[in-house]
Design a protein that fits this description.
The chain is mostly helical. Helices cover about 80% and strands about 0% of the residues. It has helices at about 10-25, 30-85, 95-115. It is rod-shaped and about 135 Å long. About 5% of the residues are buried.
Length: about 120
Amino acid sequence: MTKNIYQKPSPETQAEALKIARATQRPGQTKEQTKLIAQGVEKGIALYKKQQKEKARELSRKLKKATSQSQLSVEQEDQEMEIVERIVYRQHWLPWLLLALSWLGWGVYFFVSQGQ
């Protein structure tokens, strides 16, 4: 349940509404009529301010959502970058074994040929 609590307009809003009502006053218009017009203007100003607050809240929600999405995408990119950085190319052991055997064979050949 939402309670519709009417908040009294600020004195600045009341003064502005009265100023507008007096500026649009017609000849022969009574003070009561001017007062009613001022009250209508106050309600209009209050409604306008309420709408602007709602727009500001909605904009801040969208901004917050966009920043959180951008942070998530940055975090995902960071995670992907970490995965890319962690790739280790493992070499097969056979070429190293063949290299060692060839060096060993050349060493044996060298020592055997030196001994003769």
